[in-house]
From TrEMBL:
UniProt protein name: Cytokinin riboside 5'-monophosphate phosphoribohydrolase
A Pfam family annotated for this UniProt entry: Lysine_decarbox
Keyword check for Hydrolase: yes
EC number: 3.2.2.n1
Superkingdom in the source lineage: Bacteria
Family to which the UniProt record says this protein belongs: Belongs to the LOG family.
GO-annotated molecular function: hydrolase activity, hydrolyzing N-glycosyl compounds
Keywords of the record: Cytokinin biosynthesis, Hydrolase
Length: 182
């Protein structure tokens, strides 16, 4: 499967995120999943790509030309696609992935997974949107979705399109069940 991972180009301030991104990279390669991501060499993005590549996996990056000019692009990927802007990048990340996975990250990470979730809600795709809830990172978002349901701005059935997993074991279990469904 092609898994689009949304994550940051920084490390965060807790080593748990780097430790978990390395575990995720090993898992992706071992499971023979192809990594689709934002194409950066910096921060968690670079560590994830490097880990998958070191384990013999395939990594496909999609990055705006402006980021490449600022020397942010990872130039040693299986394939790096240069695009005009962030909108094209986000569109291709969604088109190319079979599953969307949000690792803890900043506003860009949140924007991208929320767009994928929003598009799933209105039927533009039927791909799972998974939040890897390391250390409870996405608990406030989960609570916010509950608030949206309670106030009538989100249907409970739509919440099923946002899957929260706490670790790689839960992610693995979801992926096994998802493959059987397909």
């Amino acid at each position: 499967m092609k898994i689009t991972v949304y994550l940051g180009s920084s490390f965060g301030n807790d080593p748990i995120y780097k430790e978990n991104i390395i575990e995720l990279g090993h898992w992706l390669a071992k499971q023979k999943h192809q990594l689709i991501y934002g194409g950066s060499k910096d921060g968690l993005m670079g560590v994830l790509a490097d880990t998958v590549l070191a384990d013999g996996g395939e990594v496909y990056g999609i990055i705006p030309l402006d980021f490449k000019k600022r020397e942010k692009a990872h130039l040693h990927l299986t394939e790096l696609t240069l695009v005009a802007d962030m909108d094209e990048r986000k569109r291709l990340l969604m088109e190319n992935g079979d599953v969307f996975l949000a690792f803890p990250g900043g506003p860009g990470t949140l924007e991208e997974i929320i767009q994928a979730f929003s598009w799933a809600r209105i039927g533009l795709h039927h791909k799972p949107c998974i939040f890897l809830n390391i250390n409870g990172y996405y608990n406030p978002l989960k609570e916010f979705f509950d608030q949206m349901v309670a106030t009538g701005f989100l249907n409970q059935s739509d919440c099923d399109k946002a899957i929260f997993v706490n670790d790689l074991q839960e992610l693995s279990a979801f992926m096994v069940a998802y493959r059987k469904e397909k």
